[in-house]
Every structure is written in C-alpha cells, then in structure tokens.
C-alpha cells in the first residue's frame, strides 16, 4: 500500500513539474506575440526634399498615408521569431504640407497618375527578412529590420531602424527609413514646368501603435 502511495505522489509531482515547465515559457513570452497595427492611433509620413524656384512649400513635401494595415510579431527573447509586415494603399497618400486647394489637387493627382501610377500598382508592401533587437530599458528596445519593399512593381531591400516600447498588450514603434525613387523605376516629380522639383531620396517616418 505504501509503495502504491509513493508512486502516486511521485506521479503527481512529475505532473506538477510538467505543468510548471509548460507554464514557464508562457510567462517568459509575456511580451511576445502578434500585434495588429492600429492606423487610428498611428502616424505614417512620406517626406521628399524639393528644389527649384517655387519655394512656397519650403524644403520638403510631406505626404500622409491614410490607409494601411499590418502585423508586428515581437519577441525580444527570440529575435528570429520577430517580424513586420505592412500593406499600404498607394491611392491614399495625401499631401500634408500646407498648400492652396488647387495646388493640393494638382500635386496629388500628378503624384498618383505620373509618379506612383496608383491604379496600376494599388498596393505597397513591406515584409521583414531579419530582425535584430537590443534592450535599452524596461520594456524598451532598439530594433534593426532588414526587409524588402514592393513598390511600383519593383522589389528592393530596404532597412529600417526603430525604437520600440512594449506595455502589456500595446506596442509602440517609432522609426524611419529612406529609399531612392530611381531604384523603384519612379521618375522624380516636377511641377509647373520644373519650378518645383522633388529630390530622388524619399524619407519615411512612422509612429505605429499595435495592439494584441
């Protein structure tokens, strides 16, 4: 009888140990998982330098991306399991720089018809290939992402760097990336006979909020 009881206690102990081992990774992965980007709480801007005699827009033209979605998988303990995927509706780029209504309409129309060819290429997509993570504080991280961008029918490698903060089920990521329009077979924009010319380099900045 005593032997049977000892075996029962031993089996219960093993069962409890197994549950503990199964529960431990879940606790360790408290900051891991899939976060869905919330555009209502996020910001996504595209900036281009300008040149020429037509200076009323200042040194930059800024466009706001208004329709996008994506998923961030973030695991600081296993960077290889982390990833980023985001899709942008190219037709939703809208001029954020101050301009008259007429200038705004002309610039947006030419941007979509002559530069991005938004009807032919309605979606822009970025997918990460590799993610590196460095912890900088409690719930704070620096992140380097190597990924490929599909834009204007062309796919090229584009790196980005971001600062990430994780608080419970909320992830915030702020960062930037830059790209050359020529690499994506995009002709630089010119307005009013070249009085306003857009530089080849485009800078993308973002402040993303993602929830799970």
Task: Describe what this molecule looks like in 3D.
The structure is a single chain. The chain has 2 helices and 12 strands. It is of the alpha+beta class and 212 residues long. The protein has helices at 2-28, 101-115, and strands spanning 34-37, 43-51, 60-65, 68-73, 83-89, 93-95, 123-137, 140-151, 154-167, 170-180, 190-191, 196-211.
Brief sketch in words of this structure:
With 212 residues, the protein is α+β, with helices and mostly antiparallel strands. The protein is built from two helices and twelve strands, in the order αββββββαββββββ.
Features:
212 residues, alpha+beta, Lipocalin, eight-stranded antiparallel barrel, 2 helices, 20% helix, disordered N terminus
Compute the number of strand runs. 12
State the secondary-structure class: alpha+beta
Sum up the overall morphology in one term: elongated
Biggest sheet, open or closed, and with what strands and sense?
8 strands, antiparallel, barrel
Q: CATH architecture of the largest domain, please?
A: Beta Barrel
Whole-number mean pLDDT: 83
Distance between the termini: 52 Å
Integer-rounded radius of gyration: 24 Å
User: What name goes with the CATH superfamily of the largest domain?
Assistant: Lipid/polyisoprenoid-binding, YceI-like
CATH topology of the largest domain: Lipocalin
Helix content: 10-25%
Q: Give the helices and strands as they follow along the chain.
A: HEEEEEEHEEEEEE
CATH level 1 name of the largest domain: Mainly Beta
Strand content: over 45%
Number of helices: 2
Strand order of the largest sheet: 1-4-5-7-8-9-10-12
Low-confidence stretches: 1-31
